[in-house]
Amino acid sequence: MNFTLTVAKNGIKKLLSEKWKLVMFLVIPLMMGGLFSLISGSSGQPKPVGILLITDNDDSLLSQLLVGGFNQGPMAEMFISKEVTHDKAQTIMDKGNASVWLEIEKGFAQNYLDGKSTTVKLVKNPSQTILPQIAETAVNLMADGGHYIQLLFSKELKQFNSLLNGKEVSDAQMALMSVQLKHTFSSLENQLFPPQIKATKKTTEVKKQSGKSFIHLMFPGILFMSLLFSSQGMALEFWNDKTQGISRRLLSSPTGLNKYMNGKLLTSVFVYILLAAVIGTLGLLLLELKLINIIVIIAWLMLSGLVLGSMMLFISLLMPTEKSANVVTSAMVFPLMMLGGSFFPFEAMPKWMVAIGQYLPNGYMLQSFNQWFIKDQALSVLTVPLLIAIAFILIMWFINKSLLPKFVRAV
Predict the structure, then answer these.
(1) CATH class held by domain 50-166
(2) What is the pTM of this model?
Protein backbone atom coordinates (compact mmCIF):
# COMPACT_ATOMS: atom_id res chain seq x y z
CA MET A 1 0.00 0.00 0.00
CA ASN A 2 2.89 2.33 0.80
CA PHE A 3 4.39 1.75 -2.65
CA THR A 4 0.99 2.45 -4.27
CA LEU A 5 0.80 5.81 -2.49
CA THR A 6 4.42 6.56 -3.43
CA VAL A 7 3.65 5.96 -7.10
CA ALA A 8 0.57 8.18 -6.83
CA LYS A 9 2.50 10.98 -5.10
CA ASN A 10 5.31 10.87 -7.66
CA GLY A 11 2.76 10.88 -10.49
CA ILE A 12 1.00 13.93 -9.04
CA LYS A 13 4.29 15.77 -8.53
CA LYS A 14 5.25 15.02 -12.12
CA LEU A 15 1.93 16.34 -13.42
CA LEU A 16 2.18 19.52 -11.34
CA SER A 17 5.71 20.10 -12.62
CA GLU A 18 4.43 19.72 -16.20
CA LYS A 19 1.59 22.22 -15.78
CA TRP A 20 1.06 22.53 -19.52
CA LYS A 21 -0.43 19.02 -19.63
CA LEU A 22 -3.12 19.83 -17.05
CA VAL A 23 -3.74 23.16 -18.72
CA MET A 24 -4.34 21.45 -22.09
CA PHE A 25 -6.83 19.07 -20.50
CA LEU A 26 -8.81 22.18 -19.44
CA VAL A 27 -8.17 24.69 -22.21
CA ILE A 28 -9.40 22.67 -25.21
CA PRO A 29 -12.84 21.75 -23.75
CA LEU A 30 -13.37 25.25 -22.32
CA MET A 31 -12.34 26.86 -25.60
CA MET A 32 -14.80 24.69 -27.54
CA GLY A 33 -17.55 25.37 -25.01
CA GLY A 34 -16.87 29.10 -25.24
CA LEU A 35 -17.12 29.02 -29.03
CA PHE A 36 -20.42 27.16 -28.83
CA SER A 37 -21.66 29.74 -26.32
CA LEU A 38 -20.74 32.62 -28.64
CA ILE A 39 -22.45 30.89 -31.57
CA SER A 40 -25.63 30.19 -29.62
CA GLY A 41 -25.93 33.79 -28.38
CA SER A 42 -26.89 35.19 -25.00
CA SER A 43 -30.31 33.54 -25.02
CA GLY A 44 -28.75 30.17 -25.64
CA GLN A 45 -30.58 29.54 -28.90
CA PRO A 46 -29.04 30.30 -32.28
CA LYS A 47 -31.13 32.67 -34.41
CA PRO A 48 -30.49 33.52 -38.03
CA VAL A 49 -30.29 37.24 -38.84
CA GLY A 50 -30.37 38.60 -42.38
CA ILE A 51 -30.55 41.88 -44.27
CA LEU A 52 -33.89 42.80 -45.88
CA LEU A 53 -33.73 45.52 -48.53
CA ILE A 54 -36.97 47.44 -49.12
CA THR A 55 -37.70 49.63 -52.13
CA ASP A 56 -41.08 51.27 -51.64
CA ASN A 57 -41.92 53.03 -54.91
CA ASP A 58 -45.52 53.65 -53.80
CA ASP A 59 -44.92 55.17 -50.35
CA SER A 60 -48.57 54.77 -49.41
CA LEU A 61 -50.36 53.72 -46.24
CA LEU A 62 -50.93 50.19 -47.59
CA SER A 63 -47.33 49.76 -48.69
CA GLN A 64 -46.16 50.87 -45.25
CA LEU A 65 -48.49 48.29 -43.67
CA LEU A 66 -46.95 45.61 -45.88
CA VAL A 67 -43.42 46.62 -44.93
CA GLY A 68 -44.40 46.88 -41.27
CA GLY A 69 -45.06 43.14 -41.18
CA PHE A 70 -41.29 42.60 -41.28
CA ASN A 71 -40.66 45.02 -38.42
CA GLN A 72 -42.82 43.30 -35.83
CA GLY A 73 -42.71 40.07 -33.81
CA PRO A 74 -40.38 37.21 -34.78
CA MET A 75 -39.74 38.70 -38.24
CA ALA A 76 -38.10 41.73 -36.63
CA GLU A 77 -35.70 39.41 -34.78
CA MET A 78 -34.64 37.63 -37.99
CA PHE A 79 -34.38 40.57 -40.42
CA ILE A 80 -32.68 43.95 -40.34
CA SER A 81 -34.74 46.12 -42.69
CA LYS A 82 -33.08 48.80 -44.82
CA GLU A 83 -34.99 51.13 -47.17
CA VAL A 84 -32.93 51.73 -50.31
CA THR A 85 -33.44 52.86 -53.89
CA HIS A 86 -33.81 50.42 -56.78
CA ASP A 87 -30.27 50.93 -58.10
CA LYS A 88 -28.62 50.63 -54.69
CA ALA A 89 -30.61 47.50 -53.87
CA GLN A 90 -29.57 45.96 -57.19
CA THR A 91 -25.90 46.66 -56.42
CA ILE A 92 -26.12 45.18 -52.92
CA MET A 93 -27.87 42.02 -54.16
CA ASP A 94 -25.32 41.57 -56.95
CA LYS A 95 -22.58 41.55 -54.29
CA GLY A 96 -24.53 39.05 -52.19
CA ASN A 97 -24.61 41.36 -49.16
CA ALA A 98 -28.33 40.95 -48.40
CA SER A 99 -30.72 38.04 -47.93
CA VAL A 100 -33.86 39.43 -49.58
CA TRP A 101 -34.93 42.41 -51.65
CA LEU A 102 -38.59 43.47 -51.50
CA GLU A 103 -39.73 46.00 -54.11
CA ILE A 104 -43.24 47.48 -54.17
CA GLU A 105 -44.37 48.98 -57.47
CA LYS A 106 -45.71 52.50 -57.84
CA GLY A 107 -49.51 52.59 -57.72
CA PHE A 108 -49.66 49.52 -55.46
CA ALA A 109 -52.30 50.94 -53.08
CA GLN A 110 -54.39 52.49 -55.91
CA ASN A 111 -54.51 49.25 -57.90
CA TYR A 112 -55.33 47.19 -54.84
CA LEU A 113 -58.21 49.42 -53.72
CA ASP A 114 -59.57 49.51 -57.27
CA GLY A 115 -59.56 45.71 -57.41
CA LYS A 116 -56.84 45.59 -60.05
CA SER A 117 -53.81 43.33 -60.11
CA THR A 118 -50.65 44.66 -58.52
CA THR A 119 -47.08 43.41 -58.20
CA VAL A 120 -44.70 42.96 -55.29
CA LYS A 121 -41.24 41.79 -56.39
CA LEU A 122 -39.19 39.57 -54.09
CA VAL A 123 -35.55 38.85 -54.99
CA LYS A 124 -33.79 36.12 -52.98
CA ASN A 125 -30.09 35.62 -52.41
CA PRO A 126 -29.30 32.23 -54.04
CA SER A 127 -26.41 31.59 -51.63
CA GLN A 128 -28.81 31.53 -48.65
CA THR A 129 -31.67 29.12 -48.01
CA ILE A 130 -33.51 29.58 -44.72
CA LEU A 131 -34.01 33.36 -44.47
CA PRO A 132 -35.10 33.94 -48.09
CA GLN A 133 -37.57 31.08 -47.76
CA ILE A 134 -38.99 32.61 -44.56
CA ALA A 135 -39.39 35.99 -46.28
CA GLU A 136 -41.08 34.40 -49.30
CA THR A 137 -43.52 32.52 -47.06
CA ALA A 138 -44.36 35.73 -45.17
CA VAL A 139 -45.01 37.66 -48.40
CA ASN A 140 -47.20 34.84 -49.76
CA LEU A 141 -49.26 34.85 -46.58
CA MET A 142 -49.71 38.62 -46.80
CA ALA A 143 -50.69 38.33 -50.47
CA ASP A 144 -53.25 35.60 -49.73
CA GLY A 145 -54.74 37.60 -46.89
CA GLY A 146 -54.98 40.71 -49.04
CA HIS A 147 -56.59 38.71 -51.86
CA TYR A 148 -59.38 37.39 -49.63
CA ILE A 149 -60.02 40.84 -48.17
CA GLN A 150 -60.27 42.15 -51.72
CA LEU A 151 -62.83 39.45 -52.65
CA LEU A 152 -65.00 40.02 -49.58
CA PHE A 153 -64.92 43.81 -49.44
CA SER A 154 -64.39 44.88 -53.07
CA LYS A 155 -67.21 47.48 -53.04
CA GLU A 156 -66.17 48.91 -49.69
CA LEU A 157 -62.54 49.15 -50.79
CA LYS A 158 -63.53 51.23 -53.84
CA GLN A 159 -65.51 53.60 -51.63
CA PHE A 160 -62.65 53.69 -49.15
CA ASN A 161 -60.36 54.60 -52.04
CA SER A 162 -62.48 57.67 -52.71
CA LEU A 163 -61.98 58.77 -49.12
CA LEU A 164 -58.22 58.35 -49.42
CA ASN A 165 -58.13 60.37 -52.63
CA GLY A 166 -59.96 63.23 -50.94
CA LYS A 167 -63.13 62.89 -53.00
CA GLU A 168 -66.34 64.09 -51.41
CA VAL A 169 -68.49 61.27 -50.04
CA SER A 170 -72.09 62.02 -49.13
CA ASP A 171 -73.76 60.95 -45.91
CA ALA A 172 -75.92 58.53 -47.87
CA GLN A 173 -72.82 56.86 -49.33
CA MET A 174 -71.27 56.58 -45.85
CA ALA A 175 -74.47 55.01 -44.54
CA LEU A 176 -74.59 52.63 -47.51
CA MET A 177 -70.98 51.63 -46.82
CA SER A 178 -71.87 50.84 -43.20
CA VAL A 179 -74.88 48.73 -44.24
CA GLN A 180 -72.78 46.84 -46.81
CA LEU A 181 -70.15 46.06 -44.18
CA LYS A 182 -72.85 44.87 -41.78
CA HIS A 183 -74.36 42.57 -44.42
CA THR A 184 -70.94 41.17 -45.32
CA PHE A 185 -70.10 40.37 -41.70
CA SER A 186 -73.55 38.85 -41.17
CA SER A 187 -73.07 36.63 -44.20
CA LEU A 188 -69.71 35.49 -42.90
CA GLU A 189 -71.15 34.88 -39.46
CA ASN A 190 -73.83 32.57 -40.87
CA GLN A 191 -71.14 30.54 -42.65
CA LEU A 192 -68.67 30.38 -39.82
CA PHE A 193 -70.95 30.12 -36.79
CA PRO A 194 -71.83 27.56 -35.65
CA PRO A 195 -68.62 25.98 -36.93
CA GLN A 196 -68.88 22.88 -39.07
CA ILE A 197 -66.17 21.21 -36.97
CA LYS A 198 -66.92 21.01 -33.29
CA ALA A 199 -63.93 21.42 -31.03
CA THR A 200 -63.84 19.54 -27.76
CA LYS A 201 -61.51 20.49 -24.96
CA LYS A 202 -59.26 17.72 -23.73
CA THR A 203 -56.96 18.20 -20.81
CA THR A 204 -53.67 16.38 -21.09
CA GLU A 205 -50.75 16.51 -18.75
CA VAL A 206 -47.81 18.15 -20.43
CA LYS A 207 -44.38 17.92 -18.95
CA LYS A 208 -42.95 21.30 -18.17
CA GLN A 209 -39.96 22.13 -20.34
CA SER A 210 -36.80 22.74 -18.43
CA GLY A 211 -35.95 25.86 -20.42
CA LYS A 212 -32.24 25.07 -20.18
CA SER A 213 -29.95 27.31 -22.20
CA PHE A 214 -27.72 25.88 -24.90
CA ILE A 215 -24.59 26.38 -22.78
CA HIS A 216 -26.35 24.61 -19.89
CA LEU A 217 -26.97 21.65 -22.21
CA MET A 218 -23.34 21.79 -23.36
CA PHE A 219 -21.89 21.87 -19.84
CA PRO A 220 -21.89 18.07 -19.26
CA GLY A 221 -20.36 17.55 -22.70
CA ILE A 222 -17.50 19.92 -21.80
CA LEU A 223 -16.87 17.93 -18.62
CA PHE A 224 -16.69 14.63 -20.50
CA MET A 225 -14.57 16.19 -23.22
CA SER A 226 -11.93 17.02 -20.60
CA LEU A 227 -12.21 13.47 -19.25
CA LEU A 228 -11.48 11.97 -22.67
CA PHE A 229 -8.37 14.10 -23.15
CA SER A 230 -7.09 13.45 -19.64
CA SER A 231 -7.83 9.69 -19.71
CA GLN A 232 -5.89 9.39 -22.95
CA GLY A 233 -2.97 11.32 -21.46
CA MET A 234 -2.91 9.21 -18.29
CA ALA A 235 -3.02 5.97 -20.29
CA LEU A 236 -0.01 7.07 -22.36
CA GLU A 237 1.92 7.65 -19.11
CA PHE A 238 2.38 3.86 -18.94
CA TRP A 239 4.29 4.02 -22.22
CA ASN A 240 6.35 6.94 -20.97
CA ASP A 241 7.39 4.97 -17.87
CA LYS A 242 8.18 1.93 -19.99
CA THR A 243 10.42 3.98 -22.28
CA GLN A 244 12.35 5.23 -19.22
CA GLY A 245 12.66 1.68 -17.87
CA ILE A 246 10.68 2.42 -14.71
CA SER A 247 8.05 -0.30 -15.05
CA ARG A 248 10.56 -2.98 -16.20
CA ARG A 249 12.40 -2.79 -12.86
CA LEU A 250 9.20 -3.83 -11.10
CA LEU A 251 9.06 -7.24 -12.81
CA SER A 252 11.22 -8.76 -10.07
CA SER A 253 8.61 -7.92 -7.42
CA PRO A 254 5.57 -10.27 -7.31
CA THR A 255 3.11 -7.45 -6.53
CA GLY A 256 5.15 -4.52 -7.79
CA LEU A 257 3.30 -4.09 -11.08
CA ASN A 258 -0.11 -4.31 -9.39
CA LYS A 259 0.80 -1.60 -6.88
CA TYR A 260 2.33 0.45 -9.69
CA MET A 261 -0.91 0.27 -11.71
CA ASN A 262 -3.01 1.14 -8.64
CA GLY A 263 -0.78 4.13 -7.94
CA LYS A 264 -1.24 5.33 -11.52
CA LEU A 265 -5.00 4.95 -11.15
CA LEU A 266 -4.91 7.07 -7.98
CA THR A 267 -3.01 9.73 -9.93
CA SER A 268 -5.73 9.60 -12.57
CA VAL A 269 -8.40 10.03 -9.88
CA PHE A 270 -6.59 13.16 -8.67
CA VAL A 271 -6.60 14.57 -12.21
CA TYR A 272 -10.31 13.80 -12.73
CA ILE A 273 -11.26 15.41 -9.41
CA LEU A 274 -9.14 18.47 -10.20
CA LEU A 275 -10.72 18.92 -13.64
CA ALA A 276 -14.24 18.41 -12.28
CA ALA A 277 -13.58 20.90 -9.47
CA VAL A 278 -12.27 23.61 -11.81
CA ILE A 279 -14.98 23.24 -14.46
CA GLY A 280 -17.62 22.68 -11.78
CA THR A 281 -16.62 25.95 -10.12
CA LEU A 282 -17.08 27.73 -13.44
CA GLY A 283 -20.52 26.12 -13.65
CA LEU A 284 -21.22 27.33 -10.12
CA LEU A 285 -20.45 30.90 -11.19
CA LEU A 286 -21.87 30.95 -14.73
CA LEU A 287 -24.85 28.59 -14.41
CA GLU A 288 -25.59 29.36 -10.74
CA LEU A 289 -25.45 25.69 -9.79
CA LYS A 290 -26.00 24.62 -6.21
CA LEU A 291 -22.98 23.55 -4.16
CA ILE A 292 -24.46 20.08 -3.61
CA ASN A 293 -24.61 19.70 -7.39
CA ILE A 294 -20.87 20.38 -7.62
CA ILE A 295 -20.20 17.55 -5.15
CA VAL A 296 -22.28 15.14 -7.22
CA ILE A 297 -20.58 16.34 -10.42
CA ILE A 298 -17.10 15.74 -8.95
CA ALA A 299 -18.05 12.25 -7.74
CA TRP A 300 -19.63 11.28 -11.07
CA LEU A 301 -16.74 12.68 -13.08
CA MET A 302 -14.27 10.69 -10.95
CA LEU A 303 -16.23 7.50 -11.62
CA SER A 304 -16.65 8.28 -15.33
CA GLY A 305 -12.96 9.12 -15.59
CA LEU A 306 -12.04 5.69 -14.23
CA VAL A 307 -14.33 4.09 -16.81
CA LEU A 308 -12.74 5.99 -19.69
CA GLY A 309 -9.23 5.68 -18.26
CA SER A 310 -9.59 1.89 -17.96
CA MET A 311 -10.75 1.70 -21.57
CA MET A 312 -7.89 3.90 -22.83
CA LEU A 313 -5.35 1.92 -20.80
CA PHE A 314 -6.64 -1.33 -22.30
CA ILE A 315 -6.13 0.05 -25.83
CA SER A 316 -2.67 1.41 -24.98
CA LEU A 317 -1.47 -1.88 -23.51
CA LEU A 318 -2.46 -3.70 -26.71
CA MET A 319 -0.43 -1.42 -28.98
CA PRO A 320 3.05 -2.57 -30.12
CA THR A 321 4.71 0.86 -29.91
CA GLU A 322 4.25 4.18 -28.12
CA LYS A 323 3.65 5.94 -31.43
CA SER A 324 0.89 3.53 -32.42
CA ALA A 325 -0.71 3.89 -28.96
CA ASN A 326 -0.67 7.67 -29.36
CA VAL A 327 -2.14 7.54 -32.87
CA VAL A 328 -4.88 5.01 -32.08
CA THR A 329 -6.07 6.65 -28.85
CA SER A 330 -6.03 10.09 -30.51
CA ALA A 331 -8.07 8.69 -33.39
CA MET A 332 -10.58 7.36 -30.86
CA VAL A 333 -11.05 10.60 -28.92
CA PHE A 334 -12.82 12.73 -31.53
CA PRO A 335 -15.32 10.08 -32.72
CA LEU A 336 -16.10 9.34 -29.07
CA MET A 337 -16.68 13.04 -28.43
CA MET A 338 -18.83 13.40 -31.54
CA LEU A 339 -21.02 10.35 -30.93
CA GLY A 340 -20.93 10.55 -27.13
CA GLY A 341 -22.61 13.96 -26.82
CA SER A 342 -19.57 16.14 -26.09
CA PHE A 343 -19.72 18.25 -29.26
CA PHE A 344 -23.53 18.54 -29.33
CA PRO A 345 -26.19 17.69 -26.74
CA PHE A 346 -28.01 14.41 -27.37
CA GLU A 347 -31.21 16.46 -27.80
CA ALA A 348 -29.69 18.20 -30.86
CA MET A 349 -28.21 15.07 -32.46
CA PRO A 350 -29.81 12.85 -35.15
CA LYS A 351 -31.51 9.74 -33.80
CA TRP A 352 -29.08 7.36 -35.48
CA MET A 353 -26.15 9.08 -33.77
CA VAL A 354 -27.89 8.91 -30.39
CA ALA A 355 -28.60 5.20 -30.95
CA ILE A 356 -24.85 4.60 -31.32
CA GLY A 357 -23.55 7.14 -28.81
CA GLN A 358 -25.67 6.02 -25.89
CA TYR A 359 -23.93 2.63 -25.84
CA LEU A 360 -20.39 4.02 -25.88
CA PRO A 361 -18.77 4.23 -22.41
CA ASN A 362 -18.63 8.02 -22.40
CA GLY A 363 -22.04 8.33 -24.06
CA TYR A 364 -23.70 6.03 -21.53
CA MET A 365 -22.17 7.82 -18.55
CA LEU A 366 -23.00 11.24 -20.03
CA GLN A 367 -26.59 10.34 -20.90
CA SER A 368 -27.12 8.89 -17.41
CA PHE A 369 -25.68 12.06 -15.90
CA ASN A 370 -28.01 14.20 -18.05
CA GLN A 371 -31.04 12.40 -16.65
CA TRP A 372 -30.23 14.04 -13.33
CA PHE A 373 -28.47 17.24 -14.42
CA ILE A 374 -30.56 18.29 -17.44
CA LYS A 375 -33.91 16.55 -16.93
CA ASP A 376 -34.00 17.20 -13.17
CA GLN A 377 -34.79 13.61 -12.24
CA ALA A 378 -34.07 12.24 -8.77
CA LEU A 379 -30.49 11.37 -7.89
CA SER A 380 -31.55 7.73 -7.62
CA VAL A 381 -31.64 7.61 -11.45
CA LEU A 382 -27.84 7.24 -11.28
CA THR A 383 -27.97 4.06 -9.17
CA VAL A 384 -28.03 1.51 -12.01
CA PRO A 385 -25.39 3.35 -14.11
CA LEU A 386 -23.26 3.57 -10.94
CA LEU A 387 -23.35 -0.22 -10.47
CA ILE A 388 -22.63 -0.85 -14.16
CA ALA A 389 -19.69 1.58 -14.06
CA ILE A 390 -18.19 -0.10 -10.97
CA ALA A 391 -18.56 -3.52 -12.59
CA PHE A 392 -16.90 -2.23 -15.78
CA ILE A 393 -13.98 -0.72 -13.82
CA LEU A 394 -13.39 -3.97 -11.88
CA ILE A 395 -13.50 -6.12 -15.04
CA MET A 396 -11.11 -3.80 -16.86
CA TRP A 397 -8.80 -3.73 -13.82
CA PHE A 398 -8.38 -7.50 -13.94
CA ILE A 399 -7.92 -7.44 -17.73
CA ASN A 400 -5.32 -4.66 -17.60
CA LYS A 401 -3.58 -6.39 -14.68
CA SER A 402 -3.15 -9.51 -16.82
CA LEU A 403 -1.90 -7.48 -19.82
CA LEU A 404 0.58 -5.34 -17.90
CA PRO A 405 3.41 -7.92 -17.43
CA LYS A 406 3.41 -8.79 -21.13
CA PHE A 407 3.34 -5.09 -21.97
CA VAL A 408 6.37 -4.38 -19.75
CA ARG A 409 8.39 -7.34 -21.07
CA ALA A 410 7.80 -6.49 -24.74
CA VAL A 411 10.74 -4.79 -26.40
Answers:
(1) alpha beta
(2) 0.57
